[in-house]
Amino acid sequence: xxxxxxPLFNFEPPAxxxxxxxxxxxxxxxxxxxxxxxKLNESVFNDTVSRISGVIQIMLNNLETKANPKNRQEEAxxxxxxxxxxxANSQPSFTRP
Length: 97
Known about the structure:
By secondary structure, this protein is mainly alpha-helical. It has helices spanning about 15-30, 40-60, 70-85, and strands spanning about 10, 70. The chain has a domain at about 10-75. About 60% of the residues lie in helices and about 5% in strands. Strands 1-2 form a two-stranded parallel sheet.
């Protein structure tokens, strides 16, 4: 799955329509293979993003869980810590002369 798509369910505060649209946009980019659609395909691309955004909003509104909502700040800090640990010892694969 696309690395830029983040989980949106069970957060406090809930996902915004902008976050849902960005995730939908990333999904459509991935599925279509277009980084940016041509003028010819732009309306179909944007219509698809809008439709997927609507379906995701419905899904998020109807999903249920017994888990406590996640805190966005805590999740961001955990992700930053994982990233720092993952890339702490990484060296460039090449050196410049």
